[in-house]
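Last lecture ended with a question: if I hand you only a sequence, what can you say about the shape of the protein? Today we answer it with a concrete record. The protein is Polyamine-modulated factor 1. Below, first the input exactly as provided, then the predicted structure, then a couple of comments.
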Amino acid sequence: MEEVVSCRSSEPILTDSAQTSENTGSHVSGETEVQENSAVNSAKCEARRSRLKVFNKVMEKSLQRLVADASFNRFAHSFHPLCKQNPQMAEVIHKQFISDLQKAIQEDINRVIEEGDLQVKLEELDRLEEQAKNTPGPAWRPSGIPEQDVCSVLVPYHQGQEEYVRRELRKLQKENAALAQRVQSGRDTIVNTEQRIAAAVDEWKGSVADLESFMSSLCPSENFESL
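The predicted structure:
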């Protein structure tokens, strides 16, 4: 009976200490949340142009908050028999649990960034924001009339496509003009070559005629007949 009473009397003491540690943990968690909000705000102020840095900072602070919530006091309160029997082993298990938890969450965050292509999209948002700073007029807002809204979106698109087609047409016309000039140059070269060949043939024919006349003057046909 005395052992039972002593065990029962010891349980509230452990519960009070666990509640105290939990209250302390919640107080620390509240302070961590305040620090997290201030850190996120400062990160937004410092890296306003880089949403990717802000995202990484928020994920880092969220992970730190999660690790702070998974404190050893809560672990000991949940696994009190194990911590009572072997506190050192419980501490080792808690450290391994925290390490695996951080690794798993970081892998999930990296997977989300990779699958969602967040880096490219966030950089695109930064670029659009930077371009919007140089725009004096207000941003586009729907007028409430679907026809006008559709036209306001489609007309610039078709105008851009028309300008693209015209630009490509000018490019093709320029290329065709260059090709036509090369073809004409080739034709002129062929005509000049034909003229040179014809002149060479005429010159060769004249040389042959002169040679025949010279040979006939040296050896007249009468001399051959007398022989």
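Comments.
1. The chain has two domains: 2-133, 150-227.
2. Confidence is low (pLDDT under 50) at residues 1-28.
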